[in-house]
Amino acid sequence: MTMGGHGTDGVERRGLMFVLSSPSGAGKTTLSRLLMDRMPGLRMSVSATTRSMRPGEVDGRDYLFVDKPRFDAMVKGDELLEWATVFDNSYGTPRAPVEAALSAGQDVLFDIDWQGTQQLREKARADVVSVFILPPSAGDLEKRLHSRAQDSDEVIRKRMSRASHEMSHWAEYDYIVINHNVDDAFAEVQSILKAERLKRERRTGLVSFVRGLQGQLQG
Ligand SMILES: Nc1ncnc2c1ncn2[C@@H]1O[C@H](COP(=O)(O)OP(=O)(O)OP(=O)(O)O)[C@@H](O)[C@H]1O
Ligand SMILES: Nc1nc2c(ncn2[C@@H]2O[C@H](COP(=O)(O)O)[C@@H](O)[C@H]2O)c(=O)[nH]1
């Protein structure tokens, strides 16, 4: 993938892929929305899915809602960077918008499961920063799924029964955040992104920046 752009300090830097995963209901969407509101230079990757739209969701903003034949055609046409089956539906990341954002020097935010994270890591390990969000307790997780009031009891039962399996992948992630309350969890996720943006390896413009400084000191 071609990547490059400028950080807020003007030094050229490679874009990064910032991944949030968690069991369903632990708070990825909530934290993603806050990141998008408050962190400049970040683009949300909008996934394609075959699941049906929830009340309040908007096609093209929350997901690209597609039918199974269209999803299969996207897989066949290599249009997806990664894809997986989650809760009996297909989900995948359209490749083109991600590559365009990274090329423009933007970071890309992903709300995807552990299967997708593994695929991204296989493709571009150095550019993937992954965060696993844990709920404070199973009781809180269930309460959050109910409080969202968008899924039937049957769907919630399914998501709760998958939670332990989802969580078994926590150790594959770079960072772990426990979402006790939204403000603290957001502050932690934001700190991770800010620190990762400053990593020396990503800041491709540092060599010439330091040479310039040395030139000024010598001249
Ligand atoms: N720290 C928190 N305390 C209380 N409620 C929270 C907290 N974080 C998120 N919630 C609420 O929990 C519900 C589920 O959160 P959210 O939709 O962000 O989860 P998610 O991980 O994105 O789930 P999914 O994987 O199913 O999309 C929402 O109603 C949200 O407002
Ligand atoms: N591997 C991928 N997983 C994805 C993608 N988009 C969303 N997801 C994950 O699916 C579940 C369920 O999401 P929901 O919106 O139906 O509650 C959740 O864990 C998401 O992170 C994707 O493109 N690829």
Tags for this model:
single chain, Rossmann fold, 4-stranded mixed beta sheet, 8 helices, 43% helix, globular, binds adenosine-5'-triphosphate, binds the ligand Nc1nc2c(ncn2[C@@H]2O[C@H](COP(=O)(O)O)[C@@H](O)[C@H]2O)c(=O)[nH]1
Could you describe the 3D structure shown?
ATP binds at residues 22-29. By secondary structure, this protein is of the alpha/beta class. It has a single domain (17-199), classed as P-loop containing nucleotide triphosphate hydrolases (Rossmann fold), CATH 3.40.50. 43% of the residues lie in helices and 21% in strands. It has 8 helices and 11 strands. It has helices at residues 28-38, 68-76, 95-103, 114-124, 138-148, 153-167, 182-197, 206-218, and strands spanning 5-6, 12-13, 17-21, 42-44, 48-49, 64-65, 80-86, 89-94, 107-111, 128-134, 175-178. The protein has a 5-stranded parallel β-sheet with strand order 4-9-3-10-11, with helices on both faces. Strands 6-5-8-7 form a 4-stranded mixed β-sheet. The termini are far apart. The relative contact order is 0.21. The model has no long low-confidence stretch (mean pLDDT 93). The structure holds adenosine-5'-triphosphate and ligand LQESDW3C. Adenosine-5'-triphosphate (ATP) binds at residues 22, 24-30, 144, 147-148, 179, 181-182.
